[in-house]
Amino acid sequence: QKEVEQDPGPLSVPEGAIVSLNCTYSNSAFQYFMWYRQYSRKGPELLMYTYSSGNKEDGRFTAQVDKSSKYISLFIRDSQPSDSATYLCAMSVSQAGTALIFGKGTTLSVSS
Amino acid sequence: DGGITQSPKYLFRKEGQNVTLSCEQNLNHDAMYWYRQDPGQGLRLIYYSQIVNDFQKGDIAEGYSVSREKKESFPLTVTSAQKNPTAFYLCASTLQGGNQPQHFGDGTRLSIL
Lengths: 112, 113
Description:
The structure holds 2 protein chains of 2 kinds. Chain A is about 0% helix and about 55% strand. Chain A is globular and about 40 Å long. Chain A is built from no helices and 11 strands. Chain B is mainly beta. Chain B is about 0% helix and about 50% strand. The interface of A and B includes residues 43, 46, 96 and 102 of A.
């Protein structure tokens, strides 16, 4: 079993739809959870950063962490064509400075 | 503007040649990382460094080497021993304390001639 599982998609939705992106993980030591957005031929851009369980909202984006189920989600409301990108989940244990463990990324396409 | 600069954007390697990818950051970050990204594989850690003059191997260090002589610089050399070097290489950095998130540069795409 891989440490972090993420459905690669592709996921295609119409403009204005609510998008749900998910990752599951196996290591219960993970404490910090991130979502990155990556456009083609660019580096990943940090979208959301959460610690432990709970929800965090930033504009149209909501991140949820359920540590009991080892499951994290990113919701995008009112999706826009500019949201078309690959979304990577990442996580780390509590030790500062250690490397992140990434999912393989989900490719999202939002059509106008 | 603070950020992470990777150069060159595109790089071509000939058979048996070593090539060096540059990564510079002006964020005053302590830790720096090199990842490799292949289609369908996600990001895999090559090397990381938490302080100057010290670095550790990641999951796929074979065929690569690094140095950390300055806090702001963490160059990656892809040696001739790396038999499948074609990939997108990403450099990241973060502050050492407080479990800060990593921030990435815009990558270098390496191809074989």
